[in-house]
Amino acid sequence: MTQGASPRRSRASALRRPPPSVEILDTAFHRASLATPHGQTKAERDRLRAKLKVVRSCATVVRHLRLEARRFAKPGLTSFEQALVAGTFGDGVLDRSLVRLRRAEERIRELSRSSEERVRRGSGAEQFGDEVRACYGRLSSFVREVDRDIVLLRDVTEFLRRRPRLDPSAPTLVVAGFPNVGKSSLVQRLSSAHPRIADYPFTTLSIAVGHADLGFDRLQVVDTPGVLGRTHRANLAEEEATTAVGKAATVVLFVIDPTGTSGYTLEEQEALLERWRAEFPRLPMVDVETKVDLGRRTSGRMQVSATTGEGIENLWSALRAQLEPKGELPPIQEAVEEAPEASQEEPSEPELERPPRRRARRSRGPP
Question: Could you say which architecture CATH assigns to the domain 7-161?
Answer without folding.
Answer: Up-down Bundle (1.20)
